[in-house]
Amino acid sequence: MTTLIKNAHIISPDVDIQNGAVLFDGKKIAAVFLDNDNLPVVDQTVDAGGKMVVPGFIDVHFHGRSGYDFCDGTQEGMNAIGNDKIKDGVTSFLGTTLTVSEEQLSAALRSAAEYMKAPTGAKVAGVHLEGPFINPKCLGAQNPEFVRKPDIEMVKRLNAIFPVKKVSYALEVEGALEFTQQLLALGITPSCVHTAASYKDYQNASRYGFKNLSHFCNQMTPLHHRDIGMVGAGLLHDEAFAELICDKLHICPEMIKLVFKVKGAGHVQLITDAMRAAGMPDGQYDLGGMNVIVKGDAARLESGALAGSTLLYYTGLRNVYEITGYPLKELIKSTSWAQAQALNLPGVGKIETGYAADVLILEDDFSPSAVFVDGARKL
Ligand SMILES: [Zn+2]
C-alpha cells in the first residue's frame, strides 16, 4: 500500500519545505519530494492543502487521558488512552506509571503488552516508571505510601512484562548511583526527578552517561548561586535532555523561553504529564489514590499543589511557538526528535526516507486534522 501526502508544508528537524510531498510505502516513509518534483503514481493520495505536515508527536511522560490512568491497569483504559492520544497528535508514547504498588505496576504493564499485540491507536514505545524510587520529601502528587529505595530486581521483573524505557528517580537516595549504572547496563534511560539532588549528584551520575531530567524544574532542586542544583545542571550541560511541561502553569513563560534559549530545541522534550482528566470536563479525579480537583487548565491536590496537567500535546507546541517565536523547523525537534535521541528509539521522529510513517497534518492552531501511524490513517 502506497500513500502520497501532497501539497504539504513539510516541517521536520532543520527542514522546511513548501509544496512538498511525502510518500509512504507500507509502514515507512519511502521518499520526500520538493516542489516541482515529479510525483509517483500511488494507491491513495491525500491533499494536505498547504497545511503543516510534521513528524508524529512522542509523549514520553503522561499518566492518562479521557478519564483513564495507565496505572488503572485495565484493558478498557489502555485502549481508550491509546486511541484518544491520536486526537492530540501523539503517534507513540511511554505509558508512565505513578508511585504505586508493584502489583499495580505489573497490571499496567500487562495491559500495555496486550494492547501492543494489535494497537488500534498510538503505539506504546515502552514504559516510563515515575517512582517509586523517589525522595519522600519531594513527593509532588506521588503517594508516599509506596515510596521505596532503588531496586533493580523490581525493574527487571517489570521489564520482563513489557519493556521499561525510562526510570525517573531521585539521584541522592541510597543506592542511586549503582542503580544508575544498572539501568544503563540494561539499556534503560535513567532520569532524575522528585529530587533534592545537588549539582554534585548530577556530576557523579553523568560520568556513567546519566543525562535525562524528568519534568524539568518541577520537583527538582532549583538554580542557586552556590549550588546550581539539578536545574542548573540541566542548563549547564549541553548533553542533558530536559522534559518540559508547557501548559504555562508548571513553568512560567519566561522560564520556557530561557530553557529553549540555553539548550536549543534539540535537547528539550515537550511532555504533557497529563493525568486522567485530560480531554475531560472539570471535576474531581483520582491520581494514584489521591483526590485531584480539576478546574480550568489546572489539576491540583486539595493542598493546592499541581497534580499533573490536563494538557493536550499539540497545545504545548502552540504555547511554545507563541512564547519563543522560534522557527518551527527548530521547535519541532522538541516534539519527537529529542525524545527519540534521549530514549534511543530508532527510526522515528523525522520526516525522512526510511523513518516510520508516523506523520501528522496540522491546522494553523496546531490541532491535527490527519494522523498516520505506521502509514495507516488513524484520524
Ligand atoms: Zn512527577
Structure characterization notes:
By secondary structure, the protein is an alpha/beta fold. It is built from ten helices and 22 strands. Strands 1, 2, 3, 4, 5, 20, 21 and 22 form an eight-stranded mixed beta sheet that branches. Strands 6-9-10-11-12-13-14-15 form an eight-stranded parallel beta sheet. Strands 16-17-18-19 form a four-stranded antiparallel beta sheet, with no helix packed on it. Helix 1 packs across helix 2 (102-115) and helix 5 (199-206) crosses helix 6. It is globular and about 60 Å long. Bound molecules: zinc ion.
Fold blueprint:
Elements: E1 2-12, E2 15-25, E3 28-33, E4 44-47, E5 52-55, E6 57-62, E7 64-65, E8 68-69, H1 75-84, E9 90-96, H2 102-115, E10 123-130, H3 152-161, E11 164-169, H4 176-185, E12 189-192, H5 199-206, E13 212-213, H6 229-236, E14 241-245, H7 253-263, E15 268-271, E16 283-287, E17 290-295, E18 298-301, E19 306-309, H8 313-324, H9 328-331, H10 337-342, E20 359-362, E21 368-373, E22 376-377
Helix pairs in contact: 1-2, 5-6
Bound molecules: zinc ion.
Zinc ion (ZN) binds next to loops.
